[in-house]
Design goal:
- The structure is a single chain.
- The protein has 337 residues and is of the alpha/beta class.
- 26% of the residues lie in helices and 28% in strands.
- The chain is built from nine helices and 16 strands.
- The longest helix is centred in the C-terminal third of the chain and has 18 residues.
- The strands form four sheets. Strands 1, 4, 6, 7, 9 and 11 form a six-stranded antiparallel β-sheet that branches. A five-stranded parallel β-sheet has the order 13-12-14-15-16, with helices on both faces.
Length: 337
């Protein structure tokens, strides 16, 4: 039994829009206005809005089998991808394009095949909870998701909802498995639906948050600064940072906002127009002091200062690095609320 659009909408988390075209299903994590904004200002970032980072299927079923058929297209500067399938909270299997390859220590640089992929999963007897994490790194188009005829499907929703703004690390770079991203882990710990607004390469961009979403999130996390240090001067950064938070607070005055400062990066001692890397955290701390509903969280030590915890060996955490990031962030969030 193929799931139709109504049923797919019922089981989907993390999408603000779902549409069907030519019997295929497409998912948006950005609003149409936000996508158009990127289309006008940055074609590379616009391409990344199509990635399915943070989008999941969550449902109960008594089906004994599950079939997935997908099409993948560019959604970031990475081409490896994984679909992670969980049953009752435990990993059941993956649909990916790299398990049959010997990965290099820096697995981020090779080009991996994109296109159509399909796989069947044995779910066993009885009722169970299924969670399917779609890839963060590519656009994932669902051509078919099927279960046994005469089986039931019922969507399962978390108790809370939050928006995660940020750069490539929030986007998901460089987790091999999307369920291991720090935002995915935090969502599970907080029993919250993740709406991921991370864009690889992004800086504080006030226009992105100039208008409200159609829902009021329970929490908002914001994690920019590393690209700001790398590419712009300090005065521009401070203006953009303050205006970003002004817009957020105006739109969500009752929502708790967590301002996460950048994690360690191996090249942090390089000379930049901005100045010393540590000034990023100092400036963010100074800016958010004026806002009552913003909680500052220092992220510098969230991931061990060791290239082995980074997929590209200097900047973007790997799966183990993200585990440290999420656990440290969760404790800081719980202390703040």
């Amino acid at each position: 039994m193929k799931l139709n659009l109504a049923k797919i909408k019922e089981i989907t988390l993390g999408a603000v829009n779902i549409k069907e075209e030519n019997s295929c299903f497409y998912f948006d994590r950005f609003t149409n206005e936000q996508k158009e904004l990127y289309k006008k200002t940055n074609e590379n970032f616009y391409m990344k809005t199509f990635s399915t980072s943070g989008i999941k299927f969550s449902f109960k079923t008594d089906s004994k089998s599950l079939f997935l058929k997908i099409k993948t297209q560019k959604g970031s500067s990475r081409t490896y991808f994984s679909v992670d399938v969980f049953i009752d909270g435990k990993i059941l299997g993956y649909l990916d394009n790299f398990s049959d390859k010997e990965l290099k220590r820096n697995y981020t640089t090779p080009e991996y095949e994109l296109g159509e992929f399909k796989k069947s999963f044995d779910l066993g007897d009885g009722e169970k909870n299924i969670c399917i994490h779609l890839p963060w790194s590519v656009e994932t188009i669902i051509e078919e998701i099927s279960i046994d005829d005469n089986s039931f499907v019922e969507g399962v929703k978390p108790s809370k909802r939050f928006i995660a703004y940020g750069d490539s690390i929030t986007h998901g770079y460089d987790a091999l498995r999307p369920s291991n991203r720090y935002v995915a882990r935090i969502a599970k710990m907080l029993d919250a639906e993740e709406v991921n607004r991370g864009i690889g390469g992004e800086k504080f961009f006030p226009l992105l948050v100039s208008k409200k979403d159609s829902f009021v999130p329970d929490y908002i996390t914001v994690a920019y600064g590393s690209n700001d240090w790398n590419f712009i001067d300090e005065e521009t950064f401070k203006n953009n940072c303050r205006n970003f938070y002004l817009n957020l607070v105006k739109n969500y005055p009752e929502t708790t906002i967590f301002a996460i400062t950048p994690i360690w990066r191996k090249d942090m001692n390089d000379e930049k127009e901005f100045g010393e890397f540590k000034k990023i955290e100092e400036d963010i701390k100074d800016i958010v002091k004026e806002f009552d509903n913003i909680k500052l969280i220092s992220g510098f030590d969230f991931v061990p200062h060791d290239e082995n915890y980074f997929g590209d060996l200097y900047l973007h955490p790997n799966d183990e690095g993200f585990k440290h990031y999420a656990e440290n962030l969760y404790h800081k969030i719980i202390e703040s609320i």
